[in-house]
Design brief:
The protein is mainly alpha-helical. The chain has one domain (2-97). Helices cover 93% and strands 0% of the residues. It has 3 helices and no strands. The protein has helices at residues 2-23, 27-56, 59-97. It is elongated. 26% of the residues are buried.
């Protein structure tokens, strides 16, 4: 049950950041929200993989676990790296608009 709640929660967080990205008018802020959405997708993939393996415990579920762990970890790592690189640009854009 906790796995399903985390899957739905991370999917909702992803949708929230995508909507914020769509509604934002500043370019750097849009990219920042895209990075946060990428991290949310990574967490979604990892929780989906763990949940599928815990529920099924088959060889196919183990392969899916390994693939989704790798892809989710890459999404989290690259999203965080991109988010940190964009922080000075976001702050500069926000200061210029005020």
């Amino acid at each position: 049950m906790l796995g399903v709640i985390s899957i739905i929660g991370f999917l909702m967080i992803f949708l929230y950041f995508k909507m914020r990205q769509y509604r934002s008018t500043y370019e750097a802020v849009k990219h920042s929200y895209a990075s946060k959405a990428s991290m949310a997708v990574g967490l979604f993939m990892i929780s989906f993989a763990i949940n599928s393996y815990v529920q099924l415990q088959t060889t196919v579920a183990a392969v899916i676990l390994l693939l989704f762990l790798a892809m989710g970890g890459a999404n989290i790592f690259l999203g965080y790296k991109n988010f940190k690189a964009l922080q000075p640009h976001v702050e500069r854009e926000m200061n210029q608009s005020s």
